[in-house]
Predict the 3D structure of the following.
Amino acid sequence: MKIGILSRNQNLYSTRRLMEACEARDHEYKIIDALHCYMNINSTQLSIHLKGEDLKGFDAIIPRIGSSVTFYGCAVLRQFEMMGIYTLNDSVAIQRSRDKLRSLQLLSRKSIGMPITGFASKPGDIKDLLNMVGGAPVVIKLLEGTQGIGVVLAETRKAAESVIEAFMGLKANIMVQEYIKEAGGADIRCFVIGDKVIASMRRQALPGEFRSNLHRGGVASLVRITPDERKTAISAAKAMGLHVAGVDLLRSDRGPLVMEVNSSPGLEGIEFATGHDVAGMIIDYVVKIVSTSRTRTRVKTQ
């Protein structure tokens, strides 16, 4: 099988592990930098080129698109989709998950637990907005932030009003969420492939820090999740339309709450914390889906 890995850097841990998993299973692969691709869009023969090479003959594409290149990366991925090539996560699902506000609205439509969230654009709405989410302390997030960047914990109402006013003054889009104190500065990353949680880890923030992201110094450890947490993670991934996702949960007094659904979850933390060959599971899933699709096609045409 020929697999394209859409990644900007083959030296990244996640990309290297996918390469190794392909090699271990004797699959051909190619690393494709989306920003170096250019496309021919017409009504007869679509194509994608990379440094003069016509990228064709792939059985599947595994997207590892960074948030900073979401627009162009998804445009390239969409071209592969239009060419009839299977993509592990499709462009619409990735864009859906990257829009923090839209993703929460979709989760709420499916009645999936999440922190109470407020969104406004005018300073005059701040007082009522804070009341809506239960008052201080609150977590204030930039919609464009990643890896814990642009996330602020405002412990008092006055601090919250000041921070929100400052962000609004900079024309930044923000959302305000209730602070889940009982989570204790920890969250759970559930790694979903298909309709299963294949691995999970607990991420604990450093003392004095409330953000548990590993990029912010959080410590990962193996954790056993509850059936309710498992169900919530799978439902959240499905709500986004993602076949592979990292679903971040908070443990609260009212059950698991979804904080974020990541469409390109890193493999390093989850593999080290659990000892699972997550990269291998991803490749096996891709092969299974593509092979099943081909079998069904042959049956229909016979």
About this structure: The radius of gyration is 21 Å. The first strand starts at residue 2 and ends at 6. The chain is about 35% helix and 25% strand. Confidence is low (pLDDT under 50) at residues 297-302.
